[in-house]
Amino acid sequence: MTSLPDRYCPTDGVRVPSDSLAWCCPSCHGPLDLDFSPTPAPLKSLTGRVNSLWRYAETLPLAPPSVSLGEGRTPLVTLTDEVSAKLDYLMPTLSFKDRGAVLLAQLAQRTGPRRVVADSSGNAGTAIAAYCARARLPCTVYVPLGTSAKKLEQIEAHGARLEIVDGDRTAAGTAAQRAADEPETFYASHVYNPYFLHGTKTYVHELWEDLGGRLPDVLVLPVGNGTLLLGAALAVSELYGAGLLDRRPALWAVQAAAVAPLADAWAQGAEELTGTTPLAPTYAEGIAIPRPPRARQILRAVRGSGGTFLTVTEDQIRHAQLDLASRGLYVEATGVACWAAVREGALGGRSAVVPLCGAGLKSGLARP
Q1: Residue 333: which of 268, 286, 264, 263 has the closest Cα?
Q2: CA 220 to CA 307: how far, in whole Å?
Q3: Cα separation of 40 and 56, whole Å?
Q4: C-alpha count within 13 angstroms, C-beta hemisphere, residue 50
Q5: Which segment of 39-48, 276-285, 343-352 scores lowest on mean pLDDT?
Q6: Rounded CA separation 158/188 (Å)
Q7: Does pTM top 0.90 for this prediction?
Q8: Mutual orientation of helices 123-135 and 98-111 as an angle, nearest 10°?
Q9: Using one digit for the tens of pLDDT, what is the confidence trace for 57-94?
């Protein structure tokens, strides 16, 4: 594409020009969406295309980038008769966040800021740091105190400046947003910037291609800030709207029981968060988000798909990680949450795919 689509606020409709460095709605300060409704290519036309997520070029709001590391096209393997797993931990930086990070880095390179800032509990920061290194963009990543030492090492190895915030994930986000308000700064937010969602949606486009033009009955997805689930919802809408799917899969959202604000709201039949959820210790640190900014959108997407919310205990997470390791798949604790939710028969005979989102090497085994 030679021109970029505008962004807009899904809450109040305020529009933000495509060339603006504004990272949120100027009115309500909420996250932005993209005014972009692409039509995917038919299955048969994908033969012979580049073996990365850029094979779905018609659905992406940016031209194929100079910053690509070959991200995407991760394997799909069978776990049981009902469940397959997509190995998204086999990405260049060892997590699914590369799907969105490559779009943010390409967008930042196009806008030419003085610097890029991001906030993360680890994986998104690593991905942003790597792709900014590829794009030769100076990058600062804000992370909360207690972030895995292995993830911090990976961020610094890519040449990013590391800012460790004395506080939780929310505090790290607040610090990054203050920095983002400085002139000539691009905020590579995997939560507020809609380009990230248009990267993560390629997860479902790949599934659709690998399964011969169909999707399973259920897509089981981990939810903290909801970037993978909302990307999945975008892709399902695109494929169904183009007549390339005959039915929509249900979206099952998984949270750690220790920090489950969305599951709590769901149980109350609410359309947005209810009350305040304290940040409690959990092995699944990557989805421990007490107040996700896109909460209303996440709840609406799950409800509209006929899906549901599930929660998993710390014991379930730990045992699921060991179970996958016994099958040859070493995945970090956050990345096993979906398998923990369905491995003991929750699907009732329905077919499903779970994402294995991050490599075990990033944080090690969950230990009691």
Answers
A1: 286
A2: 9
A3: 7
A4: 13
A5: 276-285
A6: 16
A7: yes
A8: 40
A9: 999 999 988 899 999 999 999 999 999 999 999 999 99
